[in-house]
């Protein structure tokens, strides 16, 4: 469908890369994509949906630019991306780190009910799934009612049912589960949106008032996002995506555990990600040999992030169970052949 859109968008005779972002055809694309977003993610009516340029890292600066007040912002430091978000927030005011997993190499997450989040915080920031470390909040923290919860959901959006009672704003780079790089989906409660105070073109309220067209939006990315949301809807919705994710991840974790310690997961059991499965071998040579075997079978991208090392399988919505089963078999057999 996307290939067709590039050549002929919705029967207009003109491809999506050529259409004006202010023309009638793209008006319909935006309207349909917002409607699909609301339906697929069950977005409440008192939230606004924005489609922005860039990526999630860009939001690390825009969030404090818009919402840092005279007080501090609160953060959980659960990996690479939250570390970057904290560094960005420090440029705009004082911060409070209510959990820091650095000393444990970010292997675990805290009990979300035990976090001491300051009631005077201007906002509370989390990252739902940590791609590099392979950890994931199974239940998102809920800050005090006076503190807006802002969550980076780049690597799990569209793969879990959302509890909007615990979210005031989420943002996600679409390249993992919802499309292509360069597009950000941002969903924000209107009460928080109205507090935006950054100058143009960085002000969220201004983007909302302009219908995500304060400047030229990422038109191609929005077209792809529309098709991905349709695909999720056609395949059982987010509930089914969550079940698929759990099943794929469990295949891999069971395979790792079956090697009796030869391969070892990086993340603690209670917070293992269903999007990014991370593990280590007994030595770098065994990991190198595994990567070589995986490459021969057609797998790629299994080398762990440079800050962690080891191995990582990213099993986003597009991954199928058959591929995960084959990878699980490789994990089991390689524990014998790599010794």
Give structural notes.
The chain is an alpha/beta fold. The chain has 2 domains: 233 residues, Type I PLP-dependent aspartate aminotransferase-like (Major domain) (Aspartate Aminotransferase, domain 2); 101 residues, Aspartate Aminotransferase, domain 1, CATH 3.90.1150.10. The chain is built from 10 helices and 12 strands. The strands form 3 sheets. Strands 1-9-8-7-4-2-3 form a 7-stranded mixed β-sheet, with helices on both faces. Strands 10-11-12 form a 3-stranded antiparallel β-sheet, covered by helices on one side. α4 links the parallel β2 and β3. α2 packs across α7 and α8 packs parallel to α10. The longest helix has 22 residues. The N and C termini lie far apart (46 Å). The model has no long low-confidence stretch (mean pLDDT 96).
């Amino acid at each position: 469908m996307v290939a067709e859109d590039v050549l002929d968008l919705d029967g207009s005779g003109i491809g999506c890369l050529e259409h004006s972002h202010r023309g009638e055809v793209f008006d319909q694309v935006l309207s349909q994509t917002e409607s699909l977003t609301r339906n697929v993610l069950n977005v409440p009516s008192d939230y606004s949906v924005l489609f922005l340029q860039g990526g999630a890292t860009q939001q690390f600066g825009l969030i404090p630019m818009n919402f840092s007040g005279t007080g501090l912002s609160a953060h959980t430091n659960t990996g690479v991306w939250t570390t970057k978000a904290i560094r960005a927030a420090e440029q705009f005011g004082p911060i409070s780190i209510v959990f820091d997993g650095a000393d444990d190499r970010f292997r675990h997450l805290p009990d979300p009910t035990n976090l001491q989040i300051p009631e005077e915080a201007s906002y509370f920031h989390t990252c739902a799934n940590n791609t590099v470390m392979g950890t994931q909040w199974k239940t998102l923290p809920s800050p005090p009612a006076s503190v807006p919860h802002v969550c980076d959901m780049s690597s799990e959006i569209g793969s879990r049912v959302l509890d909007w009672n615990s979210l005031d704003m989420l943002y996600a780079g679409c390249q993992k589960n919802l499309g292509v790089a360069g597009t950000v989906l941002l969903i924000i409660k209107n009460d928080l949106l109205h507090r935006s105070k950054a100058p143009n073109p960085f002000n969220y309220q201004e983007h909302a008032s302009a219908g995500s067209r304060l400047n030229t939006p990422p038109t191609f990315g929005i077209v792809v996002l529309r098709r991905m949301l349709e695909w999720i809807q056609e395949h059982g919705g987010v509930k089914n995506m969550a079940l698929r994710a759990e099943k794929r991840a469990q295949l891999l974790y069971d395979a790792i555990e079956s090697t009796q310690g030869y391969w070892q997961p990086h993340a603690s059991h209670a917070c293992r990600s269903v999007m990014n499965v991370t593990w280590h071998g007994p030595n770098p040579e065994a990991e190198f040999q595994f990567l070589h075997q995986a490459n021969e079978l057609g797998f790629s991208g299994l080398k762990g992030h440079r800050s962690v090392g080891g191995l990582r399988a990213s099993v986003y919505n597009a991954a199928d169970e058959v591929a995960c089963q084959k990878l699980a078999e490789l994990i089991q057999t390689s524990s014998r052949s790599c010794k």
